[in-house]
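SEVERITY: medium
COMPONENT: batch folding queue
REPORTER: lab tech (J.R.)

DESCRIPTION
The queue accepted two submissions in a row. Attaching both inputs and their returned structure tokens so the on-call engineer can compare them side by side.

ATTACHMENT 1
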Amino acid sequence: MKHTSNRPLSPHLQVYKPQITSVLSILHRITGVALAVGTLLVAYWLAAIAGGVETFAAANAILGSFLGKVVLFFWSWALFYHLANGVRHLLWDVGYGFDLPTVYLGGKITVGASFALTILLWLIA
């Protein structure tokens, strides 16, 4: 069957202006991917422990460099954001927080908690 309309087949980013709900949903997916990739770095670091002193020293030099610390900082933020947003989704799963003001408040709490927990981690580490 030939489609003759010029309308989009489904809503997309060119149709709707970004809202906190859509931005946080997209960010949740992005942080999920970042966590998967970052976990490979953690696995590399753990494998370096088994590789001996020289291998571990090389891994520590990479992850302890300025760039390595920046990557680890953003990875830890992604971890805390994904965790906080996951808790938010669990609350939704049991039926809490569906009214719009609570959705917006929950989104702001999620973002704030992710930054607070990341900063706290890096201050105590």
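ATTACHMENT 2
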Amino acid sequence: MELSTLQSKVIGYNVPMSKKLHIKIILGSIRDGRFSEKIGPWVEKQVQKNTTCTYEVLDLREYPLPFFDQKETPSSKKKPYTNEVVAQWTEKIKEADAYIFVTPEYDRSIPGVLKNAVDWVYPEWNKKPAAFVGYGTVGGARAIEHLRMIAVELQMATVRQAVNVFAHWTLQDEKGDIQPGALDQFERGAQTMLDQLLWWAQALKTAREEA
């Protein structure tokens, strides 16, 4: 890996790598022209402001998971990991100490592709925190509420603060690019969200290790 790439992923040089918390940023849409890949780099920049964590972006386009159709559920001892993509996805989820879901709102809920990706995994989500960046007519608020309920079933802890980007299409120019400074209004909320996420990430990691 080139140094510039490494530096873009490893944030903070005064904290030993073994002590850094690791965040997965999950892009929850695969549709053409999706806003998630445009706001994704902005989310990365917010994470980069912290000196105690590393991160990786998980783009669901890169994990073409089949529809969940297994007899055994991921919470059972017989895990449905025979599919190579499912195994890769599960391992990525296992690596994380915390998650940031970037999601649009589809019909008052989350995209089916995101729900399917969540459904393939169970113990790897357990006892870890999640935060949310939503976008849409009402800032993805209803999608985020559904994700919160799903997270409870997965034994996750969700943080109070979320980033809600209302009417995201108004923030883009005629080419579909985000206009300069259009997301500045959300930076304070994003930092509060990350502070809460990392607090819970450290607390739960300590608890998992002690258990």
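NOTES FROM REPORTER
DSSP finds six helices and six strands in the chain.
No errors were logged for either attachment.
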